[in-house]
Amino acid sequence: MKTYIVGRSDSADIQLEDSSVSGQHLSITPQSGRWHVKDLDSTNGTFVMNTQGKHEIKEETLEGSERLLLGNCVVALADLTAGIQPQSQSQLESGAGAGAGAQKDTGRQSSEDSGFSRYIRTEDGRYVRKSK
Known about the structure:
132 residues; mainly beta; 4-stranded antiparallel sheet; 8% helix; globular
């Protein structure tokens, strides 16, 4: 199961160009149809935001509809994970998807392999780059 690194660094799988985001801020791992999110000892922390406010997390499994605060950057977990397919429990049990994200070959290059970047619009109206 592949773990994706989110951060400001060029080596991050998902890059956020915001100075308040650490180089390697957090990791996201698909897990049984949900998302295992782990703060990587970031400088400004990782918070889950909800109607009651925000709470800091170090490591938590999330549904995917949550909004995260990474430094000063508010971003939807669903936007960060767009294009990443979480494995369902039945896929894990049957061994399907053993090639993490295995896809039927259509003869076309996927946007994930093409090197194009995607931009995510944060709640404060800024656009940050999501690469790969």
